Amino acid sequence: xxxxxxxxxxxxxxxxxxxxxxxxxxxxxxxxxxxxxxxxxxxxxxxxxxxxxxxxxxxxxxxxxxxxxxxxxxxxxxxxxxxxxxxxxxxxxxxxxxxxxxxxxxxxxxxxxxxxxxxxxxxxxxxxxxxxxxxxxxxxxxxxxxxxxxxxxxxxxxxxxxxxxxxxxxxxxxxxxxxxxxxxxxxxxxxxxxxxxxxxxxxxxxxxxxxxxxxxxxxxxxxxxxxxxxxxxxxxxxxxxxxxxxxxxxxxxxxxxxx
Length: 259
Ligand code: ADP
Ligand code: MG
Known about the structure:
With 259 residues, the chain is of the alpha/beta class. The protein has helices at residues 2-13, 60-67, 90-94, 111-116, 124-133, 137-144, 160-174, 190-204, 239-245, 247-255, and strands at 22-31, 34-44, 49-53, 75-80, 83-84, 97-100, 178-182, 208-212, 224-229, 232-237. It contains ten helices and ten strands. Keywords: ATP-binding, Membrane, Nucleotide-binding, Transmembrane, Transmembrane helix. This is ATP-binding cassette, subfamily B.
């Protein structure tokens, strides 16, 4: 009997693999002296769809930027696959993250080169396909005539919606396992909305997804919704759970909007 037990034990004692989940453990963060995140705990499971919702200024974009490793927490830990992201070389960690920022950072380069930043090894054809998929029509037309538009910097004269579609095309070309969309359709005009939604759908298949969305209707299907309020996670869970336990979520849901 003892022998049998010994055979079984190593198996049952085997540690469950953490997978490549992202975990925040008591994360505090502030800009200059003002603390804006006051001890965030959250787990984002590999391959899951997650949403961050909450009032404007509650800290959603700051959480997204910490996941994208823009800054280190002032206190606490952020781990990826069980490893503190501070201990992962930035270039290696960055390969895992496609981040569409609310600010749609573009560089003082052509649209083509801005999209190519998602994958410097991409062929022109792949860059153009990503652009087409995201509705950068103008850019494609101009490119076919033999010139390209400067996207960012002083030479950039693109609208918010155009900049956003370029950011999405860049993220698509990167093909990273974790996709962060911070208000990714906030500036999209109705004409391009369906197109952007389709390209976003392509971008996110099979990925770990973190969305920050205005319209609650688009995130109600998330595996896990985190309600962010004044730098804290007030509640998290599925839509059904939150409607029962989070008055703030219920209130936002009834108004059907968050910002
Ligand atoms: P949300 O995305 O939920 O609207 P943010 O994460 O952008 O909220 O902001 C959280 C808080 O941090 C706000 O009080 C905001 O004013 C402040 N904040 C955001 N970015 C900066 C920055 N670069 N410098 C100083 N304060 C900032
Ligand atoms: Mg924000």
